[in-house]
Amino acid sequence: MHNENTKDLSLLGNQEVKYDFDYNPKLLETFDNKYPDRDYFVKFNCPEFTTLCPITNQPDFATVYISYIPDVKMVESKSLKLYLFSYRNHGGFHESSMNLIMDDLIELMDPKYIEVWGKFTPRGGISIDPYCNYGRAGTKYEEMAHYRMMHHDMYPEKVDNR
């Protein structure tokens, strides 16, 4: 039984969901934030992200970290999982993929603040970890985005988890 907050969700609890292997932002669904007047982070750790190199067609694997401060709408996690899965056969560079994910989530939810960070496994001895963020223009969240960008990843990473 769905309560009033989830009545429009078609994927949550649906056992017959089909996986889309091609990029599809229409899979994303929202629900109402019960605390729009409170600032808080929602964080997703997505360790099974895959996409294809648009040049070589080889798979790229990453953990994608998504953190956002919701306003009125929030992304439903199963729809996010299916959306991220839809990158499986999508050809996109690491940087483009992370920015596209962020753009799609901004369009979907209009969050106060959001950041997306892809931690890709190395290919050819190099890992690429694009980070992007956004804060709503003209607000303290825009200032927050600038601050977090300027102070992002200031210390060398100890790479032992790839």
From TrEMBL:
The entry sums up its family as follows: Belongs to the GTP cyclohydrolase I family. QueF type 1 subfamily.
| SUPFAM superfamilies associated with the record | Tetrahydrobiopterin biosynthesis enzymes-like
What is catalysed by this protein? 7-aminomethyl-7-carbaguanine + 2 NADP(+) = 7-cyano-7-carbaguanine + 2 NADPH + 3 H(+)
Residues of the active site? 53, 60
Under the heading InterPro entries, the entry gives: GTP-CH-I_C/QueF, NADPH_dep_7-cyano-7-deazaG_red, QueF, QueF_type1
For molecular function, the Gene Ontology terms on record are: preQ1 synthase activity
- Tell me which positions the record assigns to the signal sequence: none
Main EC class the enzyme belongs to:
oxidoreductase
User: Has the keyword Lyase been applied to this entry?
Assistant: no
- Record key words, sorted: Cytoplasm, NADP, Oxidoreductase, Queuosine biosynthesis
The protein's job, in short, is: Catalyzes the NADPH-dependent reduction of 7-cyano-7-deazaguanine (preQ0) to 7-aminomethyl-7-deazaguanine (preQ1).
Native species: Salinicoccus siamensis
What EC number(s) has UniProt assigned to this enzyme?
Answer: 1.7.1.13
Subcellular location per UniProt equals: Cytoplasm
Pathway connected to this protein: tRNA modification; tRNA-queuosine biosynthesis
What's the name of the protein? Answer: NADPH-dependent 7-cyano-7-deazaguanine reductase
Q: Give the residues the record marks as binding substrate.
A: 75-77, 94-95
- Its gene name is queF
